Amino acid sequence: MRVALRRIGVLAWAEALHVVRDRATLAQIIIMPLVQLIVLANAATFAIRHTPAYVVDLDRTQSSRGLVNRLAASGHFRIEGHSASQHLANEALLQGQVTLALTVPADFEASLVRTGSAPVQIAINAEKGSAAGIVQSYARQILTSYADELGAELHPRMTALRSGTGETAPGRGAPRIEVRTRSWYNPDLDYRHYMVPGIIVALVTMIGTLLTAQNIAREKELGTLEQLNVTPITRGQFITAKLLPFWILAILDLTLGLIVGRLLFGIPVEGSLFLLFGAAAIYLVVALSIGLFISTLVETQQQAMFVTFFIMLVYLLMSGLFTPIESMPEWVQALSQINPVRHFVTISRAVLVKGAGPAEIARPLSFLALFSVIALTLAVRQYSKRAG
Amino acid sequence: MSSLAGLLRKETLHIVRDRRTLAVIALLPIVQVLLFGYAIRTDVKNVRLAIVDPAPDHATLAIRGRFDGSEVFHVVAVLREASDLEPLFQRGSAQEAVVFEPAFADHLARGLPARVLIITDATDPNTGSSRLNYASAVIQDYEREIRTRSASARIVPDVRMRFNPTGESSNLFVPGLMAFVLTITSSLMTAISLTREKETGTMEALLASPLRPGRIIVGKVAPYLVLGLLAALAVIVEATLVFRVPIRGSVLLLLAEALLFILVSLALGMLISSRTSSQRVAMLGALVGTMLPTLLLSGFIFPVESMPAVLQWLSNIVPAKWFVLIARSIMLKGVGLAYLWQETLILLFMAVLLLRMSTRSFHVRLA
Amino acid sequence: MSTGHVVEARDLTRTFGSFTAVDHITFHIDAGEVFGFLGANGAGKTTAIRMLTGLLSPSAGEARVVGHDVYRECEAIKRNIGYMSQRFSLYDDLTVRENIRLYGGIYGLSRRQVRERSDRILDTLGLGHAADQRVHGIPLGWKQKLAFSVAMLHEPRLVFLDEPTGGVDPITRRQFWEQIYEAARSGTTVLVTTHYMDEAEYCDRISIMVDGRIGAMGTPSELKSEFRTQSIEDVFVRLARPPAAAESAQ
Fold first, then answer.
1. CB neighbours of C176 closer than 8 A, spacing ≥ 6?
2. Is the pLDDT of residue A173 over 60?
3. What are the phi and psi torsion angles at A27 (to 5°)?
4. Which range has highest mean pLDDT (A65-79, B17-31, B275-289)?
5. CB spacing of B38 vs A332 below 8 angstroms
6. What's the CA gap between B72 and B44, in Å, rounded?
7. pTM for the complete prediction?
8. Chain A within 8 Å of C27 (Cβ-Cβ)?
């Protein structure tokens, strides 16, 4: 046992020295994540402001003008053009000058007073991709809340109309539901609070896995692996020694990321950091073991990079980092259960943003614990000290 | 000329023999298209809803029935007290909660406002807001139905998604995906391959041979050009066959623009490799200098409109951004060169500039 | 097959697809011998060594190294052997001392032992001044001697040297062989491969491999008289010629 620990110790220490003395690796660990974090955190958002819009107002009543004002005041839209010409609106859309065109029909207000409802037309430039869906959502929200206001405003006219047609007017006794809403955990609706923890996880995972995957492949390329294979060191000791320094580095990276996230982006830290790091410790064993496993399968660093990159990309896209898991088809959701990234993203969001404790993250944590055992075992078994 | 052919053949063999990398290159577009087509969605579905109903009555039960029957919501818990909600949210078991007040139906009958509180997990602000809207809509629908005479107004939007009437998100990501795949084959692989030659010293041997430097560059890089075109074709074929993505414009034009983009990417790859002789650094450089901008700043996944001004400005020098624009226009709007000449010119300019820069640094090393 | 030989091989074979790298070689090495494995590049020397050190599985045949079977007990073999390869032995970006500490630790030496032996090596080789210098900057000749010392660090019974003297001048090579003799004098068995035919004369016994088979084996003088030549080089040339001239000695 003592010998085993000593072997792991000296080899891990040698690895650490390699890393520190290799500028490329240092850059990979420190500079890349920082740059990526800063760019990503600012780029990776689905919150859109000041979408250029065109309004065609054929009604020109107080209600319709109110709607246009609402649109402009929301901060989501920037009215680029306002006229009675549908043709101009279409042109603007085609040219790409505006993303959304709102057409208010001529009998907007009248229709509302008479029937309580009125149609409008919205055309969205769908080639903007995901922006289109979001813009639509904003538009709907504005319409809904404006409609509520209108209801109260137009109420007297509506009731007056109805009494004119002989129906009994609804008095104060008409049933009315008052809906209040509250947004938990992100009252400012700052997209970065959502994305930054996830981005940090993604970066640390990518880098950690890439490092370990390249590591053994590089030794294979250089021929230094042979010298180790001829010693009595066992596979388990070898893999552990390879894992240890990068595991420590990854945790340091995570710490760095969290510090930057807090200082630059003000991400919340509602729960226990201790808990988060505990979960991270387990998660990183999984991620790094996967990297080592990949390393045993490939022959060159280039292959290591490509395979890792590919696998990580799939993992990341399916982890709920960028798009919600609930929106995915059933079978994809089921598959995501074996995605360790998914579980750690869940944990980090739960702990950082929602202040969750051990009980609330017990389920994803146990998945991670299980995976860590499996992944590490796989990496050790796959490694062979003897060829042929 | 035969020496060039020999170099071409060696390079091609090299690519073909590296099965693992080839497998990744071949699988990448397929898996990605599948992922984006099936998995990456932002529709609001399967919302886990918790109900807090301290005193159930016919009204609350009626509303709860609507949530039960809705396709969007999935009622996971019915509680008596709102204080039980927090752990559910933290665990992720519930994403939204509808909290009724105790005397709900009573208030309704008496004409007093019946209060209901909707709580949403706004960790993801966009989805959180969408969920709010959906839940509000369900409640408001109920409200409308119980009132014979409505004192509320409703604005009904008729939304048309122009240039993508089917609303299939798959139509939108294909251009970005092409840019992504092309960046990998043209920039990344070129950068690594050229640097590997430097690392192993075979580059010197090549340079010492009677082959002119220009020919060497062409010989090394041409196979990746072909690879890129094949990859672009693969994405197009897959998208049209599997997801029936339309290509309203000219496929030829699309491929020509793709070729232009490949040239830009190749030049970038060469430029990166000229700066370093370590494979690892080249990989890093290619990742940060080509991959990342393509993924993040080109409008592929994240809308450029939502980025801070600095990044929006930065995205203008990302070649992928222009290609995605061009490809989207060709595929969805069906426009031709007359409409796209400005963007094409920009790509052309980038290609020429980068090619000159990279070949010059290549020559400088020889001197 | 416990006959007390330090290395024993019978019909040891290794194929790669249709190519036979090592073709039924049979030989033995006794304790304290300096045994030379000669042959041209590609003759199969390195493949044979890799099988004996447990780096490569044999395709057929038997072999025992330091009393352990190469198929089933290769980890036990590794505890008792030292190895120095032609491509690499020491980490370039670690210092001399760091390299010694690494291998010392892996072979289970205590910290004190490592320190003592480390000082001794540095002293003997005169590398005290370079103890904390990265191996990268040390001249090739010194690197080789250092690598050999590190291979011997845990005082193994048997040490494998695969082309250890490539790329240095004859004088440095001679010095290296002094080290080998020193090791042999203290009882270590040495198996060394080389393509320098003059180094053959330094060995107690040699074998010459041709196309995977042992073309000739014996002491240098035995071979020279058998083939009626003045140098081992000529023996080799005779062997390498078409079958008519070669006489196999198994």
1. C141, C144, C145, C148, C164, C165, C168
2. no
3. -60, -40
4. A65-79
5. yes
6. 7
7. 0.82
8. no
> What's the rounded Cα separation, in Å, for the pair A60 and A156?
20
> Hey, how many other C-beta atoms are within 10 angstroms of the C-beta on B226?
14
Would the pLDDT of B264 be above 70? yes
* B256, B257, B258, B263: CA torsion to nearest 10: 90
Which residue among C74, C85, C108 sits closest to A386, beta carbon to beta carbon? C74
Instruction: Kindly list the residues from chain B whose CB atom is less than 8 angstroms away from the CB atom of residue A337.
Output: none
Touch between chain B and chain C (3+ CB pairs, < 8 Å)?
Answer: no
- C57 to chain A, any CB pair closer than 8 A? The answer is yes
Going by pLDDT thresholds of 50, 70 and 90, the confidence category of residue A172 is: very low
Beta strands A51-57 and C158-162, pairing class: unpaired
Interface partners of A (3+ CB pairs, < 8 Å)?
A: B, C
pLDDT band at B152 (very low <50, low <70, confident <90, very high): low
**H/E run at residue B344:** helix B337-366
* Domain spans in chain B, listed from the N-terminal domain onward: 47-162, 168-361
3-state secondary structure A274-304: HHHHHHHHHHHHHHHHHHHHHHHHCCCHHHH
Residue in chain C closest to A18 (alpha carbons) equals C93
Cβ contact, residue pair B305, A99, below 8 Å: yes
Q: Which of residues 75-114 of A touch B (CB under 8 A)?
A: 93-94, 99, 112
Instruction: Say if residue B252's pLDDT is above 50.
Output: yes
Q: Do C106 and A387 touch (CB under 8 A)?
A: no
Judged by CB atoms closer than 8 Å, whether chains meet at A24 and B281 is answered as yes
How many angstroms separate the CA atoms of A268 and C25, rounded?
A: 70
Tell me the CA distances in angstroms from A156 to A152, A243, B143, B150, C91, one per residue in order: 8, 74, 19, 12, 88
**pLDDT tens readout for residues A94-120:** 777 888 899 998 888 888 887 777 888
User: Mean pLDDT score of chain A, rounded to an integer?
Assistant: 85
Return the pLDDT at A166. Answer: 43
CB B230 within 8 A of CB B309: no
Choose the closest CB to A174 out of B40, B111, B297.
Answer: B111
Q: Strand ranges (DSSP E) for chain A?
A: 51-57, 77-83, 100-104, 117-125, 176-184
Residue type, C169: D
Question: Please, what is the average pLDDT of chain B?
Answer: 82
Which token pair is B304? 């450029």
Statement: residue B247 has pLDDT above 60: yes
Contacts of A294 in chain B (CB under 8 A): none
Mean pLDDT of C9-30: 94
DSSP strands (E only) in C67-181: 68-69, 81-84, 158-162
Q: Does A179 touch chain B (CB under 8 A)?
A: yes
* pLDDT number for residue C245: 45
Burial string for B286-299 (b: 16+ CB within 10 Å, else e) reads bbbbbbbbbbbbbb
Determine the topology of domain B47-162 in CATH: abc type-2 transporter like fold (3.40.1710)
- For chains A and B, what is the number of CB pairs under 8 angstroms? 353
- Nearest chain A residue to C159 by CA distance is A230
Chain A residue nearest residue C86, CA to CA: A223
Report pLDDT for A317: 84
Residues from chain A contacting residue B31 (CB–CB below 8 Å): 310, 314
Q: Is the pLDDT of residue B95 over 80?
A: yes
CA distance linking residue B298 with residue A197, whole number of Å: 23
Residue A189: exposure state from Cβ atoms within 10 A (0-12, 13-18, ≥19): middle
- Is any Cβ of chain A less than 8 angstroms from the Cβ of C155? no
B25 and A CB contact within 8 Å: yes
Taking residues C49-69, report their average pLDDT: 94
Q: What is the percent of chain A where pLDDT is above 90?
A: 29
pLDDT in tens, B97-117: 999 989 888 888 887 788 899
Q: Mean pLDDT of all residues in chain C?
A: 89
